[in-house]
Amino acid sequence: MVSPRLFLLALCLCCVQTRHFCRLTNITISAEKEECPTCITLTTSVCTGYCLTKESVYKSARLSMYQHVCTYGKIEYHSVKLQGCPKGVDPNYTFPVAISCECNRCRMDYTDCALQSIRPDFCS
């Protein structure tokens, strides 16, 4: 039989470790276009958190090394209409909505893997 203290310790460690792993979270972003005079904020879901990584002891130029990042597993795109856009300018602003997350290579075609960026709810 497992002692209650040992079980509680294992449960706490499990909760602490998984709390920061790759997961969905809601954030506020800004929606704007250079040609349109308005900037609105909206809420969307994104992937955030940490992924387990390994550092090889043996280093070689022939050995391809990469680190997994928290990225989209499944994604949908939604659109909102910006008000006040001049005639001839598409008023639709399209943004990603994360449906699921996974630890994988950074997909530069639709993911910003930079260490720092401006706040996502910043209007310029």
UniProtKB/TrEMBL annotation:
Which first-to-last residue range defines the signal peptide? Answer: 1-18
A GO cellular-component term linked to this record: extracellular space
Location within or outside the cell? Secreted
Q: Which domain of life is it from?
A: Eukaryota
Q: List, in alphabetical order, the Gene Ontology terms for molecular function in this entry.
A: hormone activity
Q: Which InterPro entries match?
A: Cystine-knot_cytokine, Glyco_hormone_CN, Gonadotropin_bsu, Gonadotropin_bsu_CS
- Its primary localisation, in coarse terms, equals secreted
Q: Keyword annotations for this protein?
A: Disulfide bond, Glycoprotein, Hormone, Secreted, Signal
> The Glycoprotein hormone subunit beta domain covers which part of the protein?
20-123
A single GO BP annotation from the record?
G protein-coupled receptor signaling pathway
Record's family?
Answer: Belongs to the glycoprotein hormones subunit beta family.
Tell me the protein's name: Luteinizing hormone subunit beta
